[in-house]
Amino acid sequence: MTGGTGFVGAHSVAAVLRAGCRVRLLVRDPAAVERSLVPLGVDPAGLELVVGDVTDEGAVAEAVEGAEVVLHAASVYSFDSRRRSELRRTNVRGTELVLAAGRASGARRVIHVSSVGALFPAAGPAIRTDSPVGRPREAYLATKAAAEQVARRHQQEGAPVVISYPPALLGPDDPYLGDQNTRLRNELRGLMPLWPGGGLPLGDVRDTAALHAALVTGTAGPATRHFGPQHFLTTRRYVETVREVTGRQLPAMYLPARAMLPFGLLTGVVQQVWPWHIPAEYGAVYTCAVAAPAEGGDEHGIAARPLAETMADTIAWLHARGRLSRAQAGRAADRPTAVRG
Questions:
Q1: Can you give 104-158 as a three-state secondary structure string?
Q2: Residue spans of alpha helices (H) in 203-306
Q3: Burial of 338 (0-12, 13-18, 19+ CB in 10 A)
Q4: Structure confidence by residue, pLDDT tens digits, 39-61
Q5: pLDDT of 263-272, one tens digit each?
Q6: Residues of the chain whose pLDDT is less than 70?
Q7: Distance between CA 110 and CA 179 in Å, rounded?
Q8: Are the C-beta atoms of 81 and 268 separated by less than 8 Å?
Q9: 7-176+202-230+294-305 — its CATH code?
């Protein structure tokens, strides 16, 4: 498995171990294993480690050697305009190397963790697993679309490649406080009074991890492409749900997403020279402008848990880790934080 110390990856490692599998990780920093996985109840002593990067062909070949299944979850997920070269290197080149190595090793299944964003902008009112790969005009989504092309080429050539399409993900136990959990935190800190219209696909990282465990063990069914469990919601509904689970008013204004795109482009330019992260990101606005709901591709039978549950668990975890004050977390601060699985 690659990406096993990241948000999706760590939860997927825990789910795969609970399914009774043995796991080998390709990791750049062995110290990150304990930091990312112990909070999920994983004993690092039970893991096999190969130290290296997904762009290191030799390390990748060593990691996949003899593996029955390869799960490629390594990816840089960021709308930060300063990370474009990193996005391309990890998300595209890394996918090329890992999928080719997994195929050459004789693994019975090679699972590529893609993104619903790889299919945006949608050609119609909805996306399906057989929708054409998108041609997004945003750096992160463009790299996921390019990686998707790599995975589909292997499928067309008859390789045992399976693709999962997670939505934007919230959830507890986020090792690096990624993009979506940071956005939720910023909303509760009063840093996001202005929202783009439109909508976004949103899910719980624990549900996507359950899907990956089912793909590894072969219990997800015969399909070769699967949407991660998700809800499609407007940005208004997103804010309303945060209000419901916290009991806070959280004033918000909404503008058409496409009207906000020039502002997003401007912040991207400023971000190149501004040392601190700017919450208003072009990529987030662009996603709201072009996203569409998913149809089909959920034959795996894993239902998306209620959105309010996901948000409440995430906020409770943010508060328990000192990233939100009690006042900012509202009544979600009193929610138990033992919310694994």
A1: HHCCCEEEEECCHHHHCCCCCCCECCCCCCCCCCCHHHHHHHHHHHHHHHHHHCC
A2: 205-217, 235-246, 257-271, 282-290
A3: exposed
A4: 999 999 999 999 999 999 999 99
A5: 766 776 666 6
A6: 81, 264-265, 268-280, 337-341
A7: 26
A8: yes
A9: 3.40.50.720
